[in-house]
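question for whoever is on the cluster today: can someone run the full assembly for these? two chains, 644 residues total. i dont have access anymore since they changed the login thing
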Amino acid sequence: MHREGGRIGPFPHLPRTHALRRILLATLVLGLYVLHQDWWNWTAARPLLFGFLPPGLAYHALFSVASSICMALLVRFAWPGHLEALAGEASRSSPAAAGSEEPRG
Amino acid sequence: MIEAAFVFAYLAIVLYIGIFAFRRGAGTGEDYFLASRSLGTFVFLLSLFGTNMTSVTILGSSGRAFRDGIGVYGLMASSSALVIPLTIFLVGTRIWAVGKRFGHMTPVQIFRDRWEAGHIGTVIFALQAALLVPYIVVGVLGGGTCLHSISGGKVPMWFGGGLVAIVVMSYVFFGGMRGTAWVNAFQTLLFLSFGLVAVLVIGNGIGGFGPAVERMLADVGAPGKPSLAQHLTRERPSMDPWIFFSYTFIPLSAIAFPHICIFCLTARKMESFKRTVVLYPLCIMAIWLPCVFLGTVAAGQPDIAAKVATSGDPDSVMLLLLQAHAPVWLAGILGAGIMAAVMASDSQILALSTMFTADVFAWYGGKRRFGERAQVLTGRVFVIGVTVAAFIIAMRTSEHIFDIAIKYAFTGYAALSPLVVAALFWRRSTKWGALASCVVIAAGLIGVAVLEQIHAAPVPPEKPYAIGPGLVRTPGGVMALGLMPVVPLVGLSALAMIVVSLVTPPPSAATVERYFPRPGEALRPLPGSGRAATAAVRT
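^ ran it for u. tokens below:
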């Protein structure tokens, strides 16, 4: 990663704070992916959560909750609002959608 | 038979929903196939989730947990809880935006327009359709099996499968996307509501989950019969860490499935995606956690285990638990909930119909010659044709064959995900790269299928054996370098897309600019073009 005039390498078109935010969020997603491979729970049968949920199952249930929180953070801090502008001015008439052009190669 | 009566009542309700949706229809192609892109947040979330909730979710997950234990949740559910909403957030929103802007109704329309492709789009359609058909057949089969089991064998398989096929066909025929979305939302609500009741009733019936789990932990096993305590960990042989890793690639299939992609086009506003992606992991947990846990605990119930051993069908374990521990009326309602999940083939039937009418009928001139009404009529006739064909195939073929086909379908669609990503995120991608990717996927799937036919699966206690450099035949299938085929196929598909795109000419700059307007640019229609493109111009 290199810094140049307040911009950060992988995202030269973004202000520095936005680029840092994206890097943090990408790290969060990658971190969650790694945490999904919980090899440390492979043989664990105890302690039972609430007296009946084995640790391997309780961990992955919590992982699902963590995924939901992660998505909430993505929605809050990385929402692709520019796509709404892309969709907004609907011309609704590309050749493919119209289905009336002769087939091409 | 009382349980079956509840299921019949349920089928009548969904039929009514479909016909009610028909009355709300506008008669246009976009209304029939995409509900006029008008779904609000609530229906969008529930129907998108519902369309992903199939017989695999309810019956398959509990059946597999009965055999392999709690690891099934991490294997199939929690990986989906991260990957599916993430792909909907990143890719689904973009599909929605380009669909809305350019009027696309199917993924192939996006590919054709984005890459200036014609017949290559037809190749992608053929590959997608071939991978989708087994799903529809299994839906019909699942309906027949479910009704047969719920009625205690009084409703024959052919009648159950036929009835489910007719009901699904009717509400898809009449209601189109609006009917399908409403039915899916209703089905999801039904299962979310009664799933918790099922857990409580079954838990009470088996004398509490705590004691049941403690009995499993205390089991020491016997020669040739591993301890039940293994079910509460991931020590079963099928829970190899590399298989666990490989399974995280399977949810990539979701965004490449045509019915999911088409559902992304139905949202009224992009705002609908916000709650959908946040709540999606929690919905997965609400459905999968009870199914996997109940399936696991059932392995420690001698009466249920004996019945499963007699029937030879672990996927019936959830129905057996309900029959053993729920009162008749509740078993009927819950059976209807299970039926709801099994009948998820509706979206696939509609997606196939939408694809055929838009990507083949309209593309090859049908819409121009015969008009939009003929396009909708073609879609409806295709719904009947697909359903009848699926029923005939389902009644003449072994379910096992289609279970295998679905395994290939998940792998194939996961390998198609680089195609979707390249079309929407990589300016330099080309139609030739897409074609190369499709060829690699088709060749890879056929290769795996041939290898699995030639080399018989080892039956435990036989050990997996090598069948070639880096290739091992295991009971679950062929493994490449210790990984499931989905991992190398996704990699090879992406590689083919990248390499071939870089050595072939890109689409015209005008097309690329339409899809990738630069930051700070505004969009406006191209001058001199009454019907076609828009371009990005600097402001």
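summary bc i know u wont read the tokens: The first strand of chain B starts at residue 465 and ends at 468. Chain B touches chain A through 82 residues (CB under 8 Å).
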